[in-house]
Amino acid sequence: IPRSAFKIDRLGNGGTYFDSGTTVSFLVEPAHTALVEAFGRRVLHLNRTSGSDFTNELCYDVAAGYSRLPRAPLVTLHFKNNVDMELREASVWVPLARTPQVVTICLAFVNAGAVAQGGVNVIGNYQQQDYLIEHDLERSRIGFAPANCVMD
Fold first, then answer.
1. 8-state DSSP, 26
2. Is pLDDT of 113 > 80?
3. What are the Peptidase A1 domain coordinates in residue numbering (predicted)?
4. Which of 46, 122, 130, 55 shows the shortest CA–CA distance to 88?
């Protein structure tokens, strides 16, 4: 994915935001296309289905009753200074539909469009699950660290 997909252009368009109020993540072109193509090549064993009103992303029907989501390819977000955010499976899949027999799960990344048309990258709350996020407004930085956020 070219670095330009994550930069703010000379007109102030683009960039990347962390937003806990946005459910899933949005990626601009060509970042979104690259993720969808790479992800799709690694989940050929799943039964692909159509999207929903929420997302027209990669969606799959899986048998209901499993306590875990199907294995997902490792998705890692790379940031400046060699900082990586490895996403857990629950942060990659979003369950959208459920019947007694089938659960529809979709890739939790949506196409934000081109930067020139106002597209912006947003790291949503699905991808922020099980991370402590720190917003340092004075130094214009964000920090994060893995955390076990499951309540017993």
1. E
2. yes
3. 1-145
4. 130
> How far is the C-alpha of 95 from the C-alpha of 77, rounded, in Å?
21
Torsions phi, psi for 51 (to 5 deg): -75, -160
Q: What is the value of pTM for the model shown?
A: 0.87
Which alpha helices (H) appear in 3-98, and where do they start and end? 31-42
Q: Which CATH superfamily is domain 3-146 in?
A: Acid Proteases (2.40.70.10)
DSSP-assigned letter for residue 14:
B
Helix or strand run (H / E) with residue 94: strand 93-98
Bridge partners of 76, per DSSP, are: 86
Which SS3 state, helix, strand or coil, does residue 142 take?
Answer: strand
The span from the CA of 108 to the CA of 25, in Å, is: 6
- Starting at the earlier edge strand, list the strands of the sheet with 47-49: 47-49, 59-63, 102-107, 93-98
Q: What is the pLDDT of residues 25-70, one digit of tens each?
A: 999 999 999 999 998 898 888 888 876 666 667 888 888 776 677 8
